[in-house]
């Protein structure tokens, strides 16, 4: 709405200087059009898989899910949240249709390292996006449902039922992850 208000003023724009962030001095029209795309919810048939892992089970699931997405021709970015800045993750999400978040269950919820990302996601409320959750568990479940709650709270529609694996995924369960990734890829192409 603010972009339309500024355009209606019909004044030349030579610089964009937000109260925080990058100052755009060259070609401000390029960033204005980018903001217009981002605000309108335009997306590409891409996926971002954000995860973290304790003992490697959730990481193995994530890799298999990405292979399933790729098998259906969907470009997917695999991101371990504990080694990436959340701003970089949101940059990847800007034009991606699907966000998939994975975590093992810890204390009936997800790993705390995912909290800053999921909290920021709730505040940003990306428009016209799908979400899905996966994870491994041992003594009790909880991570997948907690992640799904955060995704829905951020305004994302769930693309399908969450995926959970007990302990360490074996070859059969990794194949199930692959098939789940393929199904999600088909869902974003619809």
Helix count, per DSSP?
Answer: 7
Q: Gyration radius, to the nearest Å?
A: 18 Å
Q: How many strands in all?
A: 6
Percent range of helical residues: 40-55%
Terminal residue distance: 29 Å
Low-confidence stretches: none
Percent of residues in β-strands: 15-25%
Task: Explain what the structure shows.
The chain has 190 residues and is of the alpha/beta class. It has helices at 2-8, 28-40, 57-71, 86-93, 115-124, 143-153, 171-189; strands spanning 44-51, 75-80, 96-102, 130-137, 157-158, 163-166. Helix 3 links the parallel strand 1 and strand 2 (75-80). Helix 3 packs across helix 7 (171-189) and helix 5 (115-124) packs parallel to helix 6. The longest helix is centred in the last third of the chain and has 19 residues, at 171-189. The chain is elongated and about 60 Å long. The two termini are 29 Å apart.
Walk me through the topology.
Layout: H1 2-8, H2 28-40, E1 44-51, H3 57-71, E2 75-80, H4 86-93, E3 96-102, H5 115-124, E4 130-137, H6 143-153, E5 157-158, E6 163-166, H7 171-189
Parallel strand pairs: 1-2, 1-3, 3-4, 4-5, 4-6
């Amino acid at each position: 709405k603010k972009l339309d208000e500024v355009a209606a003023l019909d004044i030349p724009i030579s610089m964009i200087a937000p109260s925080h962030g990058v100052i755009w001095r060259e070609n401000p029209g390029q960033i204005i059009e980018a903001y217009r795309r981002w605000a309108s919810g335009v997306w590409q048939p891409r996926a971002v898989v954000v995860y973290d892992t304790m003992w490697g089970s959730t990481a193995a699931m994530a890799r298999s899910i990405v292979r399933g997405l790729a098998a259906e021709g969907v470009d997917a970015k695999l991101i371990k949240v504990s080694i990436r800045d959340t701003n970089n993750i949101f940059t990847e999400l800007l034009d991606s249709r699907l966000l998939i978040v994975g975590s093992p269950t810890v204390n009936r919820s997800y790993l705390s390292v995912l909290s800053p990302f999921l909290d920021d996601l709730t505040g940003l409320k990306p428009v016209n996006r799908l979400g899905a959750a996966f994870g491994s568990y041992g003594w009790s479940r909880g991570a997948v449902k907690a992640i799904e709650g955060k995704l829905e709270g951020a305004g994302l529609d769930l693309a399908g039922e969450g995926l959970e694996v007990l302990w360490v995924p074996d070859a059969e369960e990794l194949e199930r992850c692959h098939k789940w990734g393929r199904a999600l890829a088909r869902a974003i192409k619809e």
